[in-house]
Design goal:
four-stranded antiparallel β-sheet; 11 strands; mainly beta; seven-stranded mixed β-sheet
């Protein structure tokens, strides 16, 4: 069992920045693929970003490319999402997710697609509101 807890959300003006953190407990995440999704009430959950266990390969939704950066510190069981140049449409609840036990000896890009097929665990979310 893995518990994920997000933090760092809040209210920010357009053009501002926020840094989200997600701490995992109950299981080491060093070999996992992790990522962030976001959801607006009444809409489907939307993929935001993902990262392989080494941090060498990342993937982003087109809507956040060039503005958001995902990173991780396996020693701290933590994944981050640095969000810059925030826009009104970034307003959502942001959820951290993890998929454990990735296959060995496969390309990082394949792992990121594998992650999106179905994370194993989700965090409860942290609210990000962008408003002037």
């Amino acid at each position: 069992q893995v518990q994920l807890v997000e933090s760092g959300g809040g209210l920010q003006q357009p053009g501002g920045s926020l840094r989200l953190s997600c701490v995992a407990s109950g299981h080491t995440i060093s070999r996992s693929v992790m990522g962030w999704y976001r959801q607006v009430p009444g809409e489907e959950r939307e993929f935001v970003a993902s990262i392989t266990w080494s941090g060498a390969v990342t993937s982003y939704a087109d809507s956040v490319k060039g503005r958001f950066t995902i990173s991780r510190e396996n020693a701290k069981n933590t994944v981050y999402l640095q969000m810059n140049n925030l826009k009104l449409e970034d307003t959502a609840a942001y959820h951290c997710a993890v998929r454990l036990n990735p296959p060995a000896d496969v390309p990082g890009s394949w792992l990121l697609r594998w992650f999106r097929d179905g994370p194993d665990y989700w965090g409860p979310g942290t609210q990000v509101t962008v408003s002037s």
